[in-house]
């Protein structure tokens, strides 16, 4: 089984342009069982005023319909605001499932509502726990006792954890992020797929670096930093016994 990490530059407010880019990336991965896009890929990371605008949300949801129509034979998971929720929308051959973010950042709490219903995405014989951005952040004051959204989903016995993000760059941020995600792998004993928004290094916003952790909690495949990339990964690589990350950090 093959999945695809679609690390694309999702421009704030450019709903139609982002939708076109999503369709183009999805069609580069037709043989994939699932093509995964970043958090809020349709809208980009916009201002609070835009996210609160019913007209803007309606544009985003209309763009989802376009993506579903033009990618009918491609299985996609796309970040998009849906109503009052920050969501990940799965679409394939007329099917649609919406997974909504629970753990909101301080910025998001004034815009979106948290959601607490638990469900997995099943494709063939594989079950995926779909999480969004800060859903995987530790909510516990004790840094050694990880508590987050995954605790709600583990009783459903997922095979793989997916996290779509809009993670910004920063000094030493790539190493910190990798270690934070690794904690989730070590806790759950499940592989983890992370797909991030990206922009150029000159813009100094989203840094990319999408990656997959195998069962041994090391990065077994990764996309570059500060570059768009469509990365196909065979899930057989998740059993890799490597003990060195396949990702180098960047400097700003």
Short description:
This protein is of the alpha/beta class and 252 residues long. Helix content is 21%, strand content 25%.
Detailed description of the structure:
The protein is an alpha/beta fold. It has a single domain (2-238), classed as Nitrilase/N-carbamoyl-D-aminoacid amidohydrolase, CATH 3.60.110.10. The protein is 21% helix and 25% strand. The chain has a 6-stranded mixed beta sheet, covered by helices on one side. The chain has a 6-stranded mixed beta sheet with strand order 6-7-8-9-10-11, with helices on one face. β1 (2-7), α1 and β2 (34-36) form a beta-alpha-beta unit. α1 packs parallel to α3. The longest helix is centred in the first third of the chain and has 17 residues, at 54-70. It is globular and about 45 Å long.
List the helices and strands and how they pair.
Layout (H helix, E strand, L loop, with lengths): L1 E6 L7 H13 L6 E3 L11 H4 L2 H17 L5 E7 L2 E8 L2 E6 L20 E3 L2 E7 L17 H4 L6 E6 L7 H16 L3 E5 L14 E3 L5 E4 L6 E6 L18
Parallel strand pairs: 1-2, 2-3, 7-8, 8-9
Antiparallel strand pairs: 1-12, 3-4, 4-5, 6-7, 9-10, 10-11
Oligomer: single chain
Classify the beta-strand content into a percent band: 25-35%
Number of strands: 12
Query: In order across it, which strands form the biggest sheet?
Result: 5-4-3-2-1-12
Judging by the overall fold, what is the CATH architecture? 4-Layer Sandwich
The biggest sheet, with number of strands, parallel, antiparallel or mixed sense and barrel status, is:
6 strands, mixed
Helix-strand sequence: EHEHHEEEEEHEHEEEE
How confident overall, as mean pLDDT? Answer: 96
Q: How far apart, in Å, are the first and last alpha carbons?
A: 36 Å
CATH superfamily, by name, is Carbon-nitrogen hydrolase
The first-level CATH class name: Alpha Beta
- Give the uncertain stretches in residue-range form: none
Looking at the structure, what is the overall shape? globular
Estimate percent helicity.
10-25%
Structural class: alpha/beta
CATH topology type: Nitrilase/N-carbamoyl-D-aminoacid amidohydrolase
């Amino acid at each position: 089984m093959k999945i695809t990490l679609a690390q694309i530059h999702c421009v704030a407010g450019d709903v139609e342009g982002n939708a076109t880019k999503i369709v183009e990336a999805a069609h580069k991965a037709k043989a994939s069982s699932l093509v995964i896009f970043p958090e809020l890929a349709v809208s980009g990371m916009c201002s609070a005023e835009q996210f609160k605008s019913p007209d803007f949300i309606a544009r985003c949801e209309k763009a989802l319909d376009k993506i579903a129509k033009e990618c009918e034979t491609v299985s996609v998971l796309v970040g998009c605001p849906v109503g009052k929720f920050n969501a990940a929308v799965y679409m394939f051959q007329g099917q649609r499932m919406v997974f909504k973010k629970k753990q909101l950042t301080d910025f998001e709490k004034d815009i979106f509502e948290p959601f607490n219903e638990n469900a997995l995405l099943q494709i063939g014989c594989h079950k995926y726990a779909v999480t969004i951005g800060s859903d995987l952040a530790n909510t516990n004051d004790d840094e050694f006792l990880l508590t987050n959204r995954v605790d709600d989903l583990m009783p459903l016995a997922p095979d793989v954890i997916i996290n779509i993000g809009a993670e910004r760059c920063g000094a030493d941020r790539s190493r910190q992020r990798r270690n934070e995600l690794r904690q989730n792998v070590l806790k759950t004993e499940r592989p983890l797929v992370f797909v991030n928004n990206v922009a150029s290094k000159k813009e100094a916003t989203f840094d990319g670096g999408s990656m997959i952790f195998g069962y041994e909690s090391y990065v077994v495949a990764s996309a570059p930093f500060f570059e768009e990339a469509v990365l196909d990964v065979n899930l057989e690589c998740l059993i890799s016994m490597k003990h060195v990350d396949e990702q180098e950090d960047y400097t700003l």
